[in-house]
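Title: Comparing notes on inverse folding

I've been comparing how different people in this forum approach sequence design from structure. To keep things fair, I'm posting one structure and asking everyone to reply with a full sequence. Here's the target:
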């Protein structure tokens, strides 16, 4: 479900344009720790906002959300006419922050004679969260000019401050702060100042990523493009990454569909139009949802293709450069203008035999491929996958100091350690379930998978469940906890105990 939100670009010009950015609490599930604009979700009762003139219900609702969220998050009441006394406003704000009722809030404003005048909030742009997020929002961004000073109270927000758009972007490029992607897009538009042409540019920006021909900026020098890649469902898109500044590489050109490929090619073309140069195609591994547009990209720009030797064997192609553990992919000048920027290759098999991850040590960013996902538990099935190798690969990346982890499926996360630990624990639980069923006398891969995945709704994934179960059985055999009796038939080893993978947090 896509929720409606109102976001407020609070700004002032004295004479330099500055915008107010709030810091989201690191405890928040969605973009915790990021700098963003004030705002939040539409709530019941927002449509009861007192207006100086009548508007349609939808417009009233989103404006009501804007005025309420602005008040809750900054203490600024953007109304004209009468208003509750200062002490009552303080109490009212605390009530609203403690899950107060929007209808009651606006009732009290109306009683005091307050109303919202036309033009107080200027609608600038609407953006919809791409499908690679569990939480999706249709966000309306309003411009709001004020000379008042925002006051941030601890809770969902950890702080806030005034930024010149260019200064905020420069700090982001140096890796000094996290900016939510919509903020990056809007700050780029505001970097040259705010006038009628800027507002027109914002209003004509594509609202949805899908089909826009644009990439999503995230960390310094890293843009991503999540695409629907059948046979995976639309809710599990695969991301292509454009990594680099003036020189850039294309990691995992994923889409097979004509529209999605056109989108990817347009995004690359946009980089070229800005004077950037594509260096190579780089593959994390051989799976179909990571290589669907390799030929289309090569046909357009005749780029070399790099990857691990085993990936080349599985794709039955020769790479122009074979990559392995410790190899460096030189990217030249960093987004902040420093020299010597590179990605370090990490050989991380388990999900796939030739799997590579890529670590940007300068910005502490890991492009993790299919080692982990923020959407689903990552598939490790046999043939092709190997759980012992998978656990070793997870341990390898758990030792890194990661600030941002970019999975191929799902949104990037600033909490890499937690995701790695949860992934290990989930896989341990599945292995334990297989061992328990073996101890009950079940031994065939098919019957084991049906028992363990009996609550899974999508029967089309049944072959994947069987391969995952087979990989768990092979792991148990390697640990001495099971014996293979015949093709796809196993039994428990009497008196055996499973040697668990490393505990999370160790």
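Reply #1:
Here's my take.
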């Amino acid at each position: 479900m896509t929720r409606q939100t109102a976001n407020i670009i609070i700004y002032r010009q004295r004479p330099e344009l500055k915008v107010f950015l709030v810091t989201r609490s690191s405890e928040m599930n969605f973009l915790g720790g990021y700098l963003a604009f004030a705002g939040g979700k539409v709530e019941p009762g927002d449509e009861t906002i007192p207006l100086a003139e009548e508007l349609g219900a939808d417009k009233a609702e989103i404006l009501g959300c804007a005025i309420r969220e602005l008040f809750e998050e900054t203490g600024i009441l953007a109304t004209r006419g009468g208003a509750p006394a200062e002490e009552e406003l303080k109490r009212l704000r605390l009530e609203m922050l403690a899950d107060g009722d929007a209808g009651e809030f606006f009732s009290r404003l109306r009683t005091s004679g307050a109303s919202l005048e036309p033009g107080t909030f200027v609608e600038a742009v609407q953006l919809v969260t791409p499908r690679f997020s569990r939480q999706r929002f249709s966000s309306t961004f309003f411009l709001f000019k004020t000379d008042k000073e925002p006051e941030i109270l601890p809770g969902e927000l950890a702080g806030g401050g005034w930024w010149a758009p260019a200064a905020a972007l420069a700090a982001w490029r140096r890796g000094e702060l996290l900016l939510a992607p919509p903020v990056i897009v809007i700050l780029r538009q505001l970097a040259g100042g705010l006038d009628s042409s800027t507002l027109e540019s914002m209003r004509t920006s594509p609202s949805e990523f899908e089909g826009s021909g644009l990439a999503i900026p995230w960390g310094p020098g890293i843009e991503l493009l999540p695409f629907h890649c059948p046979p995976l469902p639309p809710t599990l898109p695969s991301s292509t990454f454009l990594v680099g500044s003036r020189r850039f590489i294309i990691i995992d050109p994923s889409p097979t569909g004509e529209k999605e490929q056109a989108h990817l090619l347009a995004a690359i073309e946009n980089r070229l139009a800005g004077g950037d140069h594509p260096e190579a195609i780089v593959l994390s591994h051989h799976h179909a949802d990571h290589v669907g547009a390799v030929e289309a990209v090569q046909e357009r720009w005749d780029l070399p293709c790099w990857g691990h030797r085993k990936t080349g064997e599985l794709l039955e192609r020769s790479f122009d450069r074979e990559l392995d553990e410790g190899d460096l992919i030189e990217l030249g000048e960093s987004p902040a203008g420093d020299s010597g920027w590179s990605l370090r290759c990490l050989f991380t098999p388990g999900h796939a035999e030739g799997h590579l991850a890529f670590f940007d040590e300068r910005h502490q960013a890991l492009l993790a491929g299919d080692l982990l996902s923020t959407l689903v538990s990552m598939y490790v099935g046999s043939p092709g996958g190997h759980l012992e190798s998978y656990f070793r690969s997870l341990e390898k990346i758990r030792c890194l100091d990661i600030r941002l982890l970019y999975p191929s499926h799902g949104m990037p996360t600033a909490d890499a350690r937690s995701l790695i630990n949860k992934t290990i624990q989930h896989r341990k639980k599945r292995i334990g379930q297989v061992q328990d069923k073996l101890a009950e006398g079940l031994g065939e891969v098919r019957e084991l998978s049906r028992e363990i995945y009996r609550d899974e709704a999508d029967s089309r994934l049944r072959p994947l469940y069987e391969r995952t179960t087979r990989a768990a059985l092979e792991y148990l055999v390697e640990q001495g906890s099971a014996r293979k009796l015949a093709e796809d038939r196993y039994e428990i080893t009497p008196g055996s105990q499973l040697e668990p993978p490393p505990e999370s947090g160790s």
